[in-house]
Amino acid sequence: MKTRIITDSASDILEGEYENLTVLPLSITFGTATYLDGVDLTHERFYELLVEEDELPKTGQVNPYAFGQVLDEVHAAGQEAVVITLSSKLSGTHQSAITAAAQAKGVVRVVDSLNVCVGERVLVECALRLAEKGLGAVEIADQICTLRDRVCVVGLLDTLEYLRRGGRISAAAGAVGELLSIKPVISVHDGEVALLGKARGSKNGRNLLNQQVEDAGGIDFGMPVALGYAGLSDKLLRKYVADSCGLWEAGFPDGSLPVHTVGATIGTHVGPGAIALAFFRKA
């Protein structure tokens, strides 16, 4: 029996990007206008609005009805389903999936990725690989729950402005940080975004990213890897990749790294210019 993988748009995967994957959109509200993430609001248009608007947008979770509709379609097709959601500590989307799964027919398993953005993406991509091998929903969910502890996410912010606007740091701290060209390095720990350190300037920030990779024990290139950038340009990410070429040679000798755009769920808080890396640490 075929297993369908379902996720939400906080993974920054677009609907149609993978054949055996359904992506349900979160909602993004700017003022009185509400959009569906990745459907009628592209990542590019999101960053244009983010810069243009005075207030930060609000993000709405995927509701149980949306999950229920997809699960009904999966059951009608004679399939099983694995739902992988963004961290339950960051959104109510996981609970929506749990609610829908409890009422669904057939075999459905819901997995809390305890992650978001590229960190959620690599778990979804791993689940797709397992489904392609013919594994059932129970086996896939069990393996993803085991593997998620090996997922490492590190990110470098280019600006403190959006953390300040979102009330996550004080105006004074934001002003001092911008003046000193402070570049925060962040990660995801236990399902929540955490500050790993602060670097003076982009170069030191990129070095700190690589230090985090080394501290994690290196990248398992046999598993999915994802790089992401926030904003309308990948210039800062390309600079990081070029400066860290030795990091990728073992896994991507031809230089064709998997690069993706970061959408609204994280982009709202980090702003343009942020870069991120997700990988599985070596077992």
From TrEMBL:
Keyword Cell inner membrane on this protein? no
SUPFAM superfamilies documented for this protein: DAK1/DegV-like
State a single Pfam family of this protein: DegV
Q: Sorted alphabetically, which PROSITE patterns does this protein's record hold?
A: DEGV (PS51482)
Give the UniProt keywords, A-Z: Lipid-binding
Ribonucleoprotein among keywords: no
Q: Which domain of life is it from?
A: Bacteria
Protein name (record): DegV family protein
